[in-house]
Amino acid sequence: MTIKTRFAPSPTGYLHVGGARTALFSWLHARKHGGKFVLRIEDTDRERSTQESVNAILEGMTWLGLDYDEGPFYQTEHFERYDEIIEQLLKEEKAYHCYCSKDELEAMREAQMANKEKPRYDGRCRHRTEPKEGIAPVIRFKNPLEGSVVVKDLIRGEVTFNNKELDDLIIARSDGTPTYNLTVVVDDMDMGVNCVIRGDDHLNNSPRQINILNALNAEAPQYAHVPMILGDDGKRLSKRHGAVSVMQYKEEGFLPEALLNYLVRLGWSYGDKEIFSIDEMIEFFKTEDVNKAASSFNTEKLLWINQEYIKSSSPEHIARHLSSHLADVAVDPTIGPDIHRVISIHQERVKTLVELAQSIVYFYKDFDEFDVKAAKKNFKDAALIPLERLLAEYSQLEIWKAEDIHKVVTSVSEQLDLKMGKVAQPLRVAITGGAVSPSIDITAELIGRDRVLERISKAIMYIKE
Ligand code: GLU
Fold first, then answer.
1. 74 — phi, psi (to 5°)?
2. How many whole angstroms from 193 Cα to the centroid of ligand 1?
3. In angstroms, how far is CA 459 from the centroid of its own chain?
4. Which of 278, 291, 364, 442 could lock 336 by a disulfide, CB 3.0 to 4.6 Å apart?
5. Is 239 marked active-site?
6. Looking at the domain assignment, is residue 232 inside a domain?
7. What number does the ligand 1 atom closest to the CA of 199 have?
8. 182 inside domain
9. Collapsing DSSP states into helix, strand and coil, what is residue 346?
10. 3-state DSSP assignment of residue 394
């Protein structure tokens, strides 16, 4: 049997990292078993669903590289099919119209509470034969009254629900629109989804959905309910804890594969291995190994993983993901030194692509001011002579290559009997504007001779002022 999983987000906001993790698990499960992965947009709540959110979900999936084999399907295009199924259930007397008013339901609830019973619909309209004048009814599913339902969950094992605990749920509202449990069941059935991986906030819906599937003579899928993600305070991860939207992580300078790697490890492990390529995730991931307990989001660890990916990715790959961040700092990498070389001397030094973009601006654009602290420390009068010597020698240098640039620094320090740092550090502040940079010779090579000469002259003037 070909495994078919799906990701079924409601487009009522951005793509949340929790949703992305669920999507990743579903995607991995499908890919691992040579199955299919479906994307279904659950947009029947027309008030809360927006096109903007649909776009955000699609954009997030694309950025993460979670490609789908079928879809995106939109539930709003399936209303006729839902009506057909509701009609079928009514006809087969597996569903019924319920005319209970709000007041009646409230009174029922209060009476049950007074009796210390769990509030539930008592099925009083099950046997009604006449409609009630002037009331638009809802439609309820006749949940079995006896027995139990077993949810066979790949993560939690078997979870048993007593049918007595489940009341007759509403499958169509009084305006005729179908409810979540009905639409999910119909679509999963029609699309041949045989493995439902979703958040464990849906665990209680599963026995109801299984009962509806049974009523439709359809086979229930396999389930895997993924525990939720908590913030560092133990509460459910939300905006209060910082970024929760996938695209915000893109904006903050994360590589998509680093976020995927972080998410796959959140609540799942394979020995003590931390870094997984996509192929390794597909090979090693098993839904059975997902933790039963909720896991906590740890931004520090995500940063660490991102750093590992930046260190080990090819400059070409980084450059592709860096371009939007370079645009943010108004750098056009086609005008100036080879961006791949610039990246290669920085990739060991940064945790995010935002940091990377910010730290390479001076290769492409002149800066107006030296960093105040760095200038104070390194542009004392004693720096004047070494800088003047460097300026003179660099303007004569025949080959503008790191090795030759380095030789000049060494010879100037020897000539002046200074420690290398007393020459190299003023040079660094002069040509980069600050006190921190990769090795000064390669940095100078990439900045280019004209700019280096100009910037040293500027530093000399600064010291003389
Ligand atoms: N649309 C539902 C949600 O976003 C998910 C439904 C499901 O996975 O069954 O919570």
1. -120, 125
2. 14
3. 45
4. 364
5. yes
6. yes
7. 8
8. no
9. coil
10. helix
